[in-house]
Amino acid sequence: MIIETVKDKLRDLFPAPAEPAVAELEAEKPQTAEAEIGVFDCNYAKQGYHLDVRLSPDQLLTTVGILYDHGFFIESITGVDWIKDGQLEATYDFCRYDFDLCRVVVRTRTPRANPILPTITGIYSGASWHERETHDFFGIVFEGHPHLIPLLLPEDADFHPLLKDFKA
What we know:
This protein is α/β, with parallel strands linked by helices. It has one domain: Beta Polymerase, domain 2 (2-Layer Sandwich). 25% of the residues lie in helices and 27% in strands. The protein has helices at 2-11, 23-28, 44-47, 60-69, 127-138; strands at 38-41, 51-55, 73-82, 87-96, 102-111, 116-118, 141-143. The strands form 2 sheets. The protein has a 5-stranded mixed β-sheet. The chain has a two-stranded parallel ribbon with strand order 6-7. Helix 5 links the parallel strand 6 and strand 7. It starts with a helix and ends in a 25-residue tail after the last strand.
């Protein structure tokens, strides 16, 4: 099955093998900046994903490349503002809809004060608009993006409306 193949490839990226996470236990853990790094099994019926990959920004392009090589496509990219932790998180949703359904969420965090992540547009050109939207709303700079201009906000906008400290 593709889940096992991809899980094995992704786990090779991490120094120590990660223990599989059980959905019920994950729900009880407080979500903080010290989120575990690794590849975690998910309960698809409850979470909508088979695998949850939490990684550092320097592991992002390698991980996305592995997913691309195994026939995954990008569904969406969005952000999460962890204001109390001083971090922003980019969340990438990937899927395969062939005979072997597999959904993977990839999460990486960056400091809120200087939110920079590498662009994945060199691997998935369709990520361009998703990254532009995430930049508009959360202020994450996708380094190397070929056209990181506002998608929905006015060109002179100096605000990011989905940050928790945004005042309308």
